[in-house]
């Protein structure tokens, strides 16, 4: 079992498989993209499998595959097939923009990978295309509906962006009336590769909840697991649920159970911290298992207690883009 220096059990890894993406969401990266990593700087699939085996042997039992866009990696399904056979790994989930997932839906189901987070920040086509700077609305919407109707556990991630999509908060919520889906509203964080800078946000989780309450005064709170980053709610009579994720307010740090590894091998113990160590060269040298385990233990043993503490220490951390961190 991995336990950090604040006595928190770490059993959840967010594993980024690429920093590349076929969208250019304006809250995530600049229009021209970022300086994407060269292929030889990314873990190969064999390395990702090996790394997963090692961390699972240390007590990680949940892995979320993220990116960049995971499905831009043509070999992603090779990784998912291996992970689905890994003893001790109880939960594999994927965070995706849903542009490229279509051809893989049947196989994901066969592999038992049912937890899919779809990032969709607008239900209005023009707003969606303005935010993502691409015209993939139909494929994203259709894949999202297909995933829901085929029985996947779908959570839609919607970042509330001042001046951009807040008119879509309530229309997006309507999906939960008809479908068994969870719409989760996230606060925007300043990890956008320099697209803009900010110290505060208007649409924090309280404002989002007040906005929803103005239309649905009878929503009620649901029990959530202690380590959940979202507070979850239901509107009476609606099939689905909704949630808010205070990613910028950071009310959930106290029970954080997660570790991040970027596509280039950086170990990140808090979103608001700098990488503790890079594992890529260690993965390509001798005594891989022993050395990776040692570095993971060291990183987990020196985590910031909260995102605020980390931010205080690493002042220029906001120069990063989410596409290289993995969300
Ligand atoms: N491409 C995939 C996607 O968009 O779902 C996976 C990678 S993306 C970096 C992972 C998550 O990070 C997404 O849910 C996205 O909305 C979120 N994200 C990206 N930039 C963000 C920001 N500045 N603030 C808050 N969340 C952000
Ligand atoms: Fe790509 Fe996801 Fe970033 Fe959007 S949020 S640009 S889909 S990595």
Automatic annotation (TrEMBL):
Q: What domain of life is recorded for the organism? A: Bacteria
Give the UniProt keywords, A-Z. 4Fe-4S, GTP-binding, Iron, Iron-sulfur, Lyase, Metal-binding, Molybdenum cofactor biosynthesis, Nucleotide-binding, S-adenosyl-L-methionine
Protein's UniProt keywords contain Iron = yes
**GO: which molecular function terms?**
4 iron, 4 sulfur cluster binding; cyclic pyranopterin monophosphate synthase activity; GTP 3',8'-cyclase activity; GTP binding; metal ion binding
Signal sequence bounds = none
Q: Does the keyword GTP-binding apply?
A: yes
List required co-factors.
[4Fe-4S] cluster
- What Gene Ontology biological process does one annotation of this record name? Mo-molybdopterin cofactor biosynthetic process
Enumerate the spans annotated as Radical SAM core domain.
Answer: 5-218
Q: Which SUPFAM superfamilies match?
A: Radical SAM enzymes
Enzyme nomenclature, EC number:
4.1.99.22
What the entry lists under PROSITE patterns is as follows: MOAA_NIFB_PQQE, RADICAL_SAM
- NCBIfam families assigned to the protein according to its UniProt record, in alphabetical order: moaA (TIGR02666)
Q: Report what the protein is called.
A: GTP 3',8-cyclase
Task: Name the source organism.
Answer: Maribacter aquivivus
What broad taxonomic lineage does this protein's source fall under? Bacteria, Pseudomonadati, Bacteroidota, Flavobacteriia, Flavobacteriales
